[in-house]
Write a structure and sequence with these properties.
Blueprint (H helix, E strand, L loop, with lengths): L1 E2 L5 E6 L13 H18 L4 H6 L3 E11 L8 E11 L3 E10 L2 E13 L11 H12 L1
Length: about 140
């Protein structure tokens, strides 16, 4: 796992049997799970874990996404899931995410993530410390 100077976060992933269909091909929804893991680990690498965010009455939820499937991943493949914050606003972020096998692009997505209060599920401002961390990465 690493945050790179180009603001891309990379998470290695191995394809297991439970990720695949009867033909040994990764089931389409599992790419979204891989992307969720990459976003979660990206935030953790910045110092913001889910439990800590909930303590601060902050929760991030997927608001929308577009996905393109380019090539299939298969059983036992070594993949890399990436996460890049394209933009962030007062209460939302737009991630560009990709899944690779080596240098081969398998899946790409743009994922809109909203910041909400965990009790009311209403939008709230992204905490200042998260905004500052994101701004530092983008300027690196």
């Amino acid at each position: 796992m690493s945050i790179l100077s180009d603001a891309a976060f990379r998470l290695p992933i191995r394809v297991y049997i439970e990720d695949t269909d009867a033909g040994g091909i990764v089931y389409y929804v599992n790419y979204l799970k891989y992307m969720e893991r990459a976003r979660t680990e990206f935030m953790r690498a910045l110092g913001f874990d889910k439990a800590g965010m909930m303590d601060e009455l902050t929760m991030f939820v997927v608001h929308g996404l577009t996905v393109d499937y380019h090539k299939p991943a298969t059983l036992d493949d070594e993949l890399t899931a990436t996460a890049v914050v394209e933009t962030f606003k007062r209460a939302s972020m737009m991630f560009e995410q990709r899944i690779f096998r080596g240098n081969e692009l398998l899946c790409s997505a743009r994922v809109s993530v909203a910041c909400v209060h965990p009790d009311t599920r209403k939008p709230r401002a992204i905490p200042a410390e998260v905004r500052e961390a994101l701004a530092q990465i983008r300027s690196a």
